[in-house]
Amino acid sequence: MGAWRCSTEAREPQAGAWREVCETKRPDVNTLGQDVDPLAVETIPQLVSERVRLTPSAPFGLERTETGWHEISWSEFGGEVERVAAGLAALGIEPGDCVAVIGWTRPEWCVADIAIQWAGGVCVGVYPTLTADQTAFILDDAGCKVAIVEDAEQLAKVRGAGTVEHTVVWGALPPSERAALAWSALAGPPIADRSRPESPAVILYTSGTTGRPKGAVLTHRHLIELLRGGASAGDIRFGDITMAFLPMAHAAEHVLSFYSRIRFGSVGAFARSVETVIDDAREVRPTYFGAVPRIFEKIHQRIELGLEQAPAYRRLLARACFAVGRACAQAQREGDAAPLWARILHPMADRLVLSRIREIFGGRVRYF
Description:
By secondary structure, this protein is α/β, with parallel strands linked by helices. The two termini are 31 Å apart. The protein folds into two domains: 17-284, Rossmann fold, CATH 3.40.50.12780; 294-359, no CATH class. The chain has helices at residues 17-25, 44-54, 74-90, 107-118, 132-142, 152-157, 220-229, 251-264, 277-284, 293-308, 312-334, 340-359; strands at 59-65, 68-73, 98-102, 122-126, 144-149, 166-169, 181-182, 200-205, 215-219, 241-244, 267-270. It is globular. The strands form two sheets. The chain has a seven-stranded mixed sheet, sandwiched between helices. Mean pLDDT is 89; it is low at 6-32.
């Protein structure tokens, strides 16, 4: 694991335990009003710098290892961004150059994204599920000079890209690998933030399932305006926890989730994989849970399958409780009072069924 991660002893994943420990040792974690004002910054790296200044010791993210959940602070995150940015500049990255990032959603992906922009470059996210041909097409189409990849599998995919001059691997390098550079070896003289409001920050490519991938260019000004427009979206609060598991090559995770976490100071718990996200959620107990519809469809299918195998009276009870929950939730969304019958029955429905559904996600989710 990277040396930049929090060096404190790993904590076992006891429900919510890490949070109580963190809050007792950090005066800034419980401070109100610690969201970054998007009106005060003009680029994404500036947003990060302001977040680090406001709450340096607050958690940027949580990562599951063999010994438990490790915490990474905003200060550690910011320091790693500057190190990687300096390393990219030493490799020859100039303002306007494109750098590809290929891998699953990890802290290193987030560091690479901001470091590329800090160096003045443009981050090009590539889905790790794409074929070598699709990957090479995107890298050549964007003109990527550097590719930052997770492992040997992704490294092999960039071999066919003609524009790539350097490759960096944040995971384990094969012993025989000589051409690629290790993540920890990125180094260079410190550089000032080169990002500019009018400059491209990110190129988001389509998945390419229905044809050649197409890229959409987003400038720093676009992204900051998006954050300004979503200042109260979802009532995200400082210190909230969300699961980080959707592909960073997609706008939902890259822009809406990651950049919002920077803006509000919420915490990304990096799931080990899409398959383990529910198990991971039970351990870190997120307070909000964002996902694409397919994730919720799978969870709904699991619940329905369990009900089909349950006795008839339990199925009837569950569906009655679901009806109560839906009535209350709909009224809450519309800003109205729930029907009297739903208000009367909700405490019992919650105790018998609804609270158990919430426990699937750790028991603390305020909204999805």
